[in-house]
Amino acid sequence: MQLSSDAEDLQPGKNSDRTKSDVEQVLKHLPIPVFICNNHGDLLYFNDFFKQIGMETDAEIENIRSLEALSFSDIYTNQPINNASLIDRLNSNELKVTNLKAQFKADSLKPYKISIDKINFAQNSECLRFCFTPTESLKLDEIKQTVLSAIVESSDDAIISKDLNGYITSWNQSATRIFGYSEEEIVGKHISILFPPDRIDDEQMIIETIKNGEQIDHFETLRLKKGGEEILISVTISPIRNASGKIIGASKIVRDISDRYKQELKQAMLSSIVSSSDDAIISKNLDGIITSWNLGATRIFGYSEQEMLGTSVKKLIPENRINEEDIIINNIKSGKRIAHFETKRLAKDGKKIPVSISVSPIKDSSGKIIGASKIARNIKDRRKAKQKIKKYNQKLEIINTIGTEISSNLDVQIVLQKVTDATTKLSGAKFGAFFYNSEDESGEAMMLYTLSGATKEDFEKLGMPRHTQIFKPTFGGQGILRIDDIKSDPRYGNNPPHKGMPIGHLPVSSYMAIPVITSSGNVIGGLIFGHPEKGKFKEDHENIVKNIATQAAIALDNSRLFERVRSLSEKKDEFIALASHELKTPLTTVIGYLQVLEKKIKEPLSRKFLSKSLDQTYKLNSLIEDLLNMSRIEAGKLDFSYEDFDITAMLQDLSETFNDGENTHNLISNIGDQPLMVTADKQRIEQVVRNLLSNAVKYSPQAEEIYLDLNAKDNKVIVKVRDNGIGLTPQQKKQVFNRFYRAETTKGINGLGLGLYLTKQIIDGHDEELIVKTEIGVGSEFCFTLERAH
Predict the structure, then answer these.
(1) What is the model's pLDDT at position 379?
(2) Do residues 298 and 279 touch, judged by C-beta distance below 8 A?
């Protein structure tokens, strides 16, 4: 406890000429309980405040004559101290007086902390002065100190103290958490350990401020963590004073604001995004009242933020969609999000705007739903784009379809109609037409060939396009003509007797005509298009139609060529059929005469020549029959006569006939004797087997045997003819069933190359398969299947 300035005047050596009454006068009003005794402990004086420490009457005070009225003990250990020895020790200055506490011996009185010093009192004699402080105040200070320590340790902020030289003197747990240093590592180190190199000057400024007794509040700066990582902090720095008020250091309260800064940065970014977004971003409470409104919302709906804040969001909803808001709010209240809901909303000018909206719940810190955020996107342009893409895809589909159809179709009428229909649709024309460039002897004729979007009656009063000036560039091959308003063209109506379009003709403003030109430069005709509105046709329409017209020209050339080929083919088929028929008649007669002679002539040499002649006529007859069958196949007139027959019996007869004849090979049959009924053309199937056997003999000249097998599997029968002959290469195998095909390895072997072609056509005509397995130098196996009879 500090003495007043008046009390300090009573210190030894000061004002020694003062009288006892002067001293008493000073002590009387001193606001400290004072008790003065001599060197023996006898009471000499106490002031008025001394009465307040427990004495209620003057009689009680009169009973205090010496230190014997008090008992003393150590303030920390509570060990009692003998009064007599106390006086001795005080006189010899052996005892630290601040470690004492005193208690009146009366039970009702409480202990007091005392401070004892020496003063001059009563004729310059040196006396002892006892100043009393209730120990309850000490207890409160201890409790206060304990509480403060607990607060410091439990604080989320770093609380650090340092001396005026910048050396750290205390360090709490949060300082460890924020900076990474333990208390043992950091206490005694200079505070600059926490400073980035470019912030070292901050410390001098801080110390100067603290020495001036000023506080630094919420100073935001950068500091270093233990690993060197920079963190953003907010620091408050206050001076630390000792008991006499002298500044001896500084306390720092440091808060890590990195997360707050990041959050503020994030919030600023979000705010910037919201402000700059092209979408309307709106928030509302659960009653539908608007609480925020961004610039995007103003751009889309036309209302300013001031106009909309505090108003109901229903202001933006058309009457026929007002129930949507109730549905949205109910979903939000249940925590559900609405994503990309396409609807319509009202702008300030009353126009309905197509929008896509997404609505999400807004929750407070406790998780309670308090409102909704809405993002509304104007999808007018997107819808237009989607429609444009849809139209574009439709055009691509039409172009792809028409390209495929006109390239695969050889019928002129079909090709031109498809081209006219497709180009009319792609160009957006009201009508389209194709005029065939067909000239008479005067060279002034055009023929209307196909129409789309109009009838022939609509063109009756038009006359032939070639007769008018407006059409001449197209059909004369001068190029494409595209006019936004045909009525303003000087060539329009410049053809007597008409001054303009004939009465009753289709109304036309937009006009486009594109010539169809072959690769050789001949103008086959022209595609013309019309529309009653002006400026309907654009450059991309022109390009699309021009490309299709090019394809059409190729297709038309192909159609013409096809027609010529087909005509020649028909004449060829007619010739083959006629020639075959005409040849068979005399050949049949020759065969008949030779057979008669064979029976009558017995002379060996003549009979031998006759037999060879007969063999050659049989071969010639077979060749004629093959040519006739081929002609029937090409003409689609190869008819089949289906019947149920036993193929086992048929193959047995063929095997016997083959082996009984004068053949160079022996036929090894694996047919079995179980009847196998099939449904097929018996005569044609027999022809197939004969062709395969004949083929096996011809292509295995060095072998002596060929093989014939018959098997049944499920509802099929399988016939195989195999040889050990020359075989085929992979390339030959691919062409072996082609008409008139003969491999290079077949030199010296007779035939036209029609046998396997006819065989394949007969099996295909039965909807069955003919398969060949072959290996060069090893042989070949031909296999076909037939359906078993039910």
Answers:
(1) 87
(2) no
What distance in Å separates the CA atoms of residue 663 and residue 331, rounded to the nearest whole number? 94
Residues 6 or more apart from 27 whose CB is under 8 A from it?
A: 7, 10, 34, 36, 45, 47
pTM of the model: 0.36
pLDDT of amino acid 291: 92
> Do the strands 158-163 and 43-46 form a parallel or antiparallel pair, or are they unpaired?
unpaired
CA distance 174 to 189: 18
Asked if residues 747 and 678 have their Cβ atoms less than 8 Å apart, the reply is no
Domain boundaries, given as residue ranges, for the chain: 5-137, 155-261, 277-378, 386-565, 639-787
Q: CB neighbours (10 Å) of residue 293? A: 22
The Cβ-side half-sphere exposure at 650, using a 13 Å CA radius, reads 20
Q: What is the CATH number of domain 277-378?
A: 3.30.450.20
Domain 639-787, CATH = 3.30.565.10
Concatenated DSSP letters of 612-647: HHHHHHHHHHHHHHHHHHHHHHHTT------EEEEH
Asked whether the beta carbons of 111 and 104 are under 8 A apart, the reply is: no
Task: Report which DSSP code applies to 782.
Answer: E
The average pLDDT across 715-744 equals: 81
How far from chain centre, in Å, is Cα 722?
A: 61
**Mean pLDDT in residue range 167-177:** 91
Report the distance separating Cα 784 and Cα 762, nearest Å.
11
Instruction: Give the least confident one: 158-167, 499-508, 597-606, 736-745.
Output: 499-508
pLDDT tens for 641-650 read: 889 999 999 9
Question: Which pLDDT band holds residue 760 (cuts at 50, 70, 90)?
Answer: confident
**Domains 155-261 and 639-787 equal at CATH topology level:** no
- Calculate the average pLDDT of the chain: 78
Q: Class assignment of domain 386-565? A: alpha beta
Of 301-305, 535-539, 572-576, least confident by mean pLDDT is 572-576
**Which amino acid, residue 621?**
N
Strands (E), 428-538: 431-436, 447-452, 481-483, 510-517, 523-531
Strand ranges across the sheet with 352-363? 290-293, 280-285, 369-378, 352-363, 338-346
- % of the chain with per-residue pLDDT over 70: 72
Long-range pairs of 230-237 with CB within 8 A, sequence gap ≥ 24:
230/196, 231/178, 231/256, 231/258, 232/256, 232/257, 232/258, 232/261, 233/178, 233/257, 237/206, 237/209, 237/210
Q: What is the pLDDT of residues 128-137, one digit of tens each?
A: 777 766 655 5
Beta bridge partners of 502: none
Max CA pair span of the chain: 197
What per-residue string of b and e applies to 346-380 under the rule 16 or more CB within 10 Å gives b?
beeeeeebbbbbebbbbeeeeeeeebbbbbbbbbe
Neighbours of 649 (CB within 10 A): 14
Q: Tokens for 281, please give them.
A: 């971003």
pLDDT digits (tens, 9 = 90+) for 241-253: 876 788 988 999 9
CA distance 245 to 249: 12
Third-level CATH fold of 155-261: Beta-Lactamase (3.30.450)
**Structure-token pair, residue 86:** 């106390």
The residue that leads in pLDDT, 222 or 23, is 222
Instruction: Kindly report, residue by residue over 104-136, the tens digit of the pLDDT.
Output: 665 444 566 777 777 776 665 677 777 766 655
- 490: which residues sit within 8 A by CB, 6+ positions away? none
| Helical (H) or strand (E) element with 787 | strand 779-787
C-alpha closest to that of 297 among 326, 272, 274, 320: 274
Residue recorded with tokens 């997107």: 382
Return the percent helix, strand and coil in the chain, to nearest 5: 45, 25, 30
10 Å Cβ neighbour count for 577? 16
CATH of domain 5-137: 3.30.450.20
Contacts 24+ apart (CB under 8 A), 588-597: 588/621, 590/617, 591/617, 591/618, 591/621
